[in-house]
Amino acid sequence: MNKIKVLVVDDSSVIRNIVSEILNQDSMIDVVGEAKDPFDAREKIKALNPDIITLDVEMPKMDGITFLKNLMRLRPMPVVMLSTLTTKGADITLQALEIGAVDFIAKPSFEELIASKLTFKDTLLDKIKSAVGIDQKSYALARRSATAPHKVLPFNGCQRANHVVAIGSSTGGTEAVKHILTALPSNSPAILITQHIPPTFSDRFAQRLNSQCEITVQEAKHGQKIKAGNAYIAPGDRHLTVASKGGSLFCVIEDSEPVNRHKPSVDVLFNSLEPLADNVQAVLLTGMGNDGAKGMLKLKQHGARTIIQDKQTSLIWGMPGQAFQLNAHTDEMPLQDIAKTILNHAGLDKRHMRKECHIE
């Protein structure tokens, strides 16, 4: 089996050395070169023909976004961004994912990197191996379909009080979530989202979506009442759960241990919705790993509508694929069909809903 050829692009020689050292320790990976700026990277891509590159989001001479646009136009290839945990870093990274970067990893400071090198190593290796393994042709077709201009869908409103849609996603999920939310009208059911994303990024992600959507999108706050026409995104370092009180639903933000190596975790959100399952739609989108699969199965067993994104339109069919293996889904469909399906189901009264889901 051929090794994965990686080019490391970063203006910091210290970071380049650390990333290269980590990657070269894996027998499946060969760091074929390092580049200190986009111009250096351009020449080394031509000379070394890497399978994938790691790319610093903020670099001198040419910014990472301009370089990425040129790369996706002239030589499309998997790119994993190395992002600083700052507001500027979050904005650039989210823009990079829109352009076509496969994934990103938060780049800690030098001191933090030395202290948590093993964690950084495991995460980086996972992301490199997953990114290089995607079907580039299928991904390109799926992206063209998902990013094609589309209108906000019509909707007559929910027929049931406190009907909610819970969405879980990871790698590739920021764009998949955007595709769904931008199609939803302002009277759509309440949406709860757990996206695997770092602190700072979750708030910027919410703000970015809010500027693009008719539905109101925000980072969830503890004790916030859940209302139709709103989407609530889990903070990047906290679990989002749901509590029912006095006939209303509320966001509960928990600072407990990671679940499935994630905080926020999709399973934590899904598990909190079990008592409300017959009034819930749960959706698992593209993502690496198995977070959300077991929670989705429990929701299905308690009467929820459960939807997984299909393999063809998923960047990585990890999370939805695990749910498929458990038969945790009531429906499997392309990304472009999910928003319409959500609204169609939300528009049913309980009698019709039970008939559609074959619930006795």
TrEMBL record:
Matches recorded under InterPro entries: CheB-like, CheB_C, CheY-like_superfamily, Sig_transdc_resp-reg_Me-estase, Sig_transdc_resp-reg_receiver
Domain of life, source organism: Bacteria
Entry's family note: Belongs to the CheB family.
GO biological process: chemotaxis
GO cellular component term, pick one: cytoplasm
A molecular-function term among this protein's GO annotations: protein-glutamine glutaminase activity
PROSITE patterns, per database record: CHEB, RESPONSE_REGULATORY
Name recorded for this polypeptide: Protein-glutamate methylesterase/protein-glutamine glutaminase
